[in-house]
Amino acid sequence: MSASSNKGVVYIGPGAVEVQTIDDPKFDNPAGQKIEHAVILKVLSTNICGSDQHMVRGRTTAPAGLVLGHEITGEVIEKGADVEMLAVGDIVSVPFNVACGRCRCCRAGDTGVCLTVNPARAGGAYGYVDMGGWIGGQARYVMVPYADFNLLRFPDRDQALAKIRDLTMLSDILPTGFHGAVKAGVGVGSVTYVAGAGPVGLAAAASARILGSAVVMIGDFNKERLAHAERAGFTPVDLGRHDRLGEMVAEIVGAPEVDAAIDAVGFEARGHAGGEQPAIVLNQMMEITRAAGQIGIPGLYVTDDPGGVDESARVGSLSLRFGLGWAKAQSFHTGQTPVLRYNRQLMMAILHDRLPIADIVNARVISLEQAPEGYRDFDKGAAVKYVLDPHGEIAKAA
User: Fold this and answer.
1) Which tens digits make up the pLDDT trace of 299-346?
2) N or C: which end of the chain has fewer CB within 10 A?
3) DSSP 285-328
């Protein structure tokens, strides 16, 4: 039997990942059953995500040996007998959601909570804890199931390669930020506040801008990230100044409230005093969002957090001032983003130079072998979105 030609980024334990030789992908689902609705991709780009970082920090129940990576762009090199709409050589974006396309939720467009691809709960994803056992794509090669339904084919190969730094964001963070902005009710003239100046927060801010927001504020403690957000054209809010967010908002827009709020932080949120306060962002959102306003929550919240600050936080139970949100008739929207709902429209915005998302999130291309270094720097708060280049194709295109 020939040796594997595949390598991937493997979670070793809290704080540690390694690039290892892994099995070549096969047309098998996680239960070991043969499937013909899949393709094998040569991975052209794959990104390090903040959601990956939660696992690598040991803040989930992810097992050692997990092959990471759910942000995948690749070239079809082999396809199953049931794949009709794709050809070998096509370059495609892979939504991080694994979705069957046939269940009740998929038919309704709620592909983030597909009912068939994960025996444990609704929703599947590549390389992620409790999301069905699908092998991750921070690798040289990966298998993608239900290919005709899931994959977004780029219309022109050369154009796709020329814009791959931008197009790689279609697999997750750009649709996730856009979903957060849509569910926050952002529209023409909206005053918008985004919590978190990491890549998803910046993608949410960029989405708010193209949706017509009049003012887009981004709050964070990280001064490097705030400086980058300001260079990208957004209004920074330095949360290190004091703990009265409404006052800082009022300094910018004249009133301590916004039309739309987006939580791009999630359960590892920190308060002004420096310690973790997993509900602080959600409570701040309710405070500053106007009556009958909307709150989009693309930030990750988990059901099991071994590193939670108390027993309640360890099972995802947070101390919310929910009565305030109820009294203000606010709307909340949470959950995994249904990428397929947005990725084609966002692709067109990228291809026609309306959305330079790679520059907005400060994309930095590194080799697959440099992934451990990328994880370390990202964990320290680097104002960067790391893009892995497993075959050197991005460097060639540049």
Assistant:
1) 999 998 999 999 999 999 999 999 999 999 999 999 999 999 999 999
2) N
3) HHHHEEEEEEEE--S---S--TT-SSHHHHTT-----HHHHHHT
Cβ(385)–Cβ(47) below 8 Å? yes
**Superfamily of structural domain 175-333:** NAD(P)-binding Rossmann-like Domain (3.40.50.720)
3-state secondary structure of 246: helix
C-alpha distances out from residue 318 to 67, 180, 195, Å: 30, 20, 18
CA angle 224, 194, 350 (to 5 degrees): 85
The full set of domain ranges for the chain reads: 6-172+338-397, 175-333
State the CATH architecture for 6-172+338-397: Alpha-Beta Complex (3.90)
Nearest to 64 by CA among 15, 106, 105: 15
List, in sequence order, the alpha helices (H) in 191-244: 199-210, 223-231
Compute CA distances 201 → 141, 189, 373, whole Å: 29, 19, 23
Over residues 363-389, mean pLDDT = 97
**3-state SS, residue 386:** strand
Average pLDDT, integer, range 152-181: 97
Give me 267's structure tokens.
């359960």
